[in-house]
């Protein structure tokens, strides 16, 4: 008999039980007003998708879009988006094939069944069910999984995207098991199906424990891979394309942790932390991401990172803590999640979210249309801001980033009460189990975090009730205190959860204050990055935007006219002031919190950044442009090159072009510098 599926250590709240507020709500509104809310009106691969009866792409793109727009619609309670979601999901459910398969198949001598896009669709359906309670979703999923079992028995996953991404399929199956409480036959079947997916899928555990991809591709115009010690490996190109692929690694990092619910192995559970350490060691970037301009590309801050990898890495970092529970490992994971979400995610969009990049660079001195030889494989459009630069997968997949951060990242439940994971302004409305029964609770989380360090919680209850509230104390906060009402402050242990178990009353208030010291991180060639709390800071040179293309039409597979919103444009961005600065050591800085900018904050932008840091730097003459990108930072300490200036750093996520890994120069190297 199969072992039972281990329960989640932290149960996520259902979609809609956490609602964004403050600057975070403004961010989601910006997203809904941008490409996310309008792609189905003009972009053929969504508007005319095969998934909804059209003749355009019928593979992953419509499920990708739906996977982000479903939570976006309900988090904002946008009736326009909700109507779209309900229309499209109803069509997909009503057109499920009689044998259980979802969506289109490619017909030759026989249907071609690919489980990968349906793994994405299942995530969208699960989110829809959580708020709609439409039992048709459960019946459709069960029917599909029986068909999938038949397919895997006959065809197996083979060498495919589904082979690499099996863990997302298992995640959906495990969710269904969690929500089928009485049918022991179906639970046993689903456990066996999940095991079949895992056995046919790629071995991510070995991938990270015996890591092969320690070097980037040396020849960006070749499809060959360089692995350990830079050795040339010509005969395994196809399989290495999949295994070194940046998005696969961003997804695969959670594979063993997802599987640990079924294996029962603590070793499996911890594998995501091993994966993070490995990717940081060989490909880590200052944003908390790892490089991958299609394939893993080393630590040079001028290498790119694909937007799809950012949002998939976030989903991995959001799901793993729910399995691991309230301990220091989860603090590490949520710290990383916040770092990626508050830096890498917003930086890859223009502030109105009508344009995005395929690849972003930590040291990005220009975003222009040109083949950058520094990249592993990506083309000339991958660094511009636009509708579908380089390839349309990110246009389809980018939408899940912010909504799932709200949905999965903030709050959860354990056996004792509520768990607060990440921080940002929001409101929760849920029901928790206590010794006296099920009670409704509301909590207002009022904060300007991550731009400011105080987080206030106000509790709304009917009757006074005993339960637990757990709060994460980040590893970067050296001195953290928490205060309940007017009681004495409690000193919190860094890198752990603090558990406040007591009888709570209506109107109780909690204030968590985190120290946000400036932290300097040594990076590539002994360069420095500047962190404050979860925020990375960057120098943003003055910039010029050049319009490349205004999309008056797209290649729609229909005869009628399509109205393209005027905001749909492709842009290049160039610097019009110096970018090539070295920071003066010892680092002396001034921090300016601009309260009024936080209050009007609509999105991450460089016109009204919510916080600034000023410090001293020297412009270098020998830091040049190389391969259409900033050359690697000159090895620190550099020699003197110019006079001392004061430069300004703003949050990385507010920038379009930037330097965020700086060479350094010691002030004692020269006595001739003058302020």
Account of the protein in words:
The chain has 21 helices and 30 strands. With 675 residues, it is α+β, with helices and mostly antiparallel strands. A hairpin with a 5-residue loop joins strand 19 and strand 20 (528-532).
Question: What's this entry about, in short?
Answer:
The protein has 675 residues and is of the alpha+beta class.
The largest β sheet comes out as: 8 strands, mixed
| Residues in helices, as a percent range | 25-40%
Which consecutive residue ranges, at least 5 long each, have pLDDT under 50? Answer: 219-237, 669-675
What distance lies between the first and last C-alpha atoms, to the nearest angstrom?
75 Å
Oligomeric state, counting identical vs distinct chains: single chain
Would you spell out the secondary-structure blueprint of this structure?
Elements (H helix, E strand, L loop, with lengths): L10 E2 L5 E3 L1 H12 L1 H8 L1 H4 L13 H16 L2 H16 L11 E2 L3 E2 L3 H17 L2 H20 L6 H4 L1 H13 L5 H17 L3 H6 L15 E2 L5 E2 L3 H7 L2 H7 L2 H9 L2 H4 L1 H13 L20 E3 H18 L3 H20 L11 E3 L31 H5 L3 H9 L1 E4 L2 E4 L5 E9 L2 E11 L6 E7 L4 E8 L7 E5 L5 E3 L4 E8 L4 E6 L3 E5 L5 E5 L2 E5 L3 E8 L18 E7 L5 E5 L3 E5 L1 H5 L11 E9 L5 E2 L2 E2 L13 E8 L12 E3 L9
